[in-house]
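Listing S7. Sequence submitted for prediction.
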Amino acid sequence: MADFTSLSADYPYPAIKVQAKNPNYARMMLSNIGDQNSEASSAALYLYDQIITAGEPEISGAFRLVRQAEEKHLELFCDVAFQLGADPRLWAVTGTNAQPMKYWSPQQLCYTANTKALLQNALALERATIAKYERQTQEIKDDAILLLLRRVLVDESMHVEIFRNLLCQVEARTPAPAALPATTSASCGLPAIAAL
């Protein structure tokens, strides 16, 4: 059984002072804040998962600590979006003229009370987040934002390892079900576990 005290890396987040306002970078940060695959989604889902797994203290505690790290990421990305010239609400750019912004909604989350399925969902969400932030590091040329993204990626990689280990523990103690519940990561718009 693991003894979690923190699920973010042991070094501080960089102080962020962006080079200049940039609407393209601001759109990316808004996506990190309030898109379906965002820090708001992770924090909200992990709060739910923490409560649902209260009978399993190791898993519940891991969700609590990961949620706290995701909330810190949310705060940092909001600050960066604001510095870049965006209004850092829980929303993302849609790319359409009819509705240029879409507010974040808890309807986007994959709710399940099945411990194995919620760990699979969390693992898929973390992996999708890593892929998204890695793409952003290829597109963004502002050194301050790159430092932040790379620092956050360290945390997200830790979260993948934690969720993978917890999932292995759950699978080891649980006989394989005939089929997973309908609320798997693939049905929530995230990449399927096998594809990652």
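Caption to Listing S7: primary sequence and predicted structure tokens for the chain studied. The mean pLDDT is 89. Strands lie at 91-93, 101-103.
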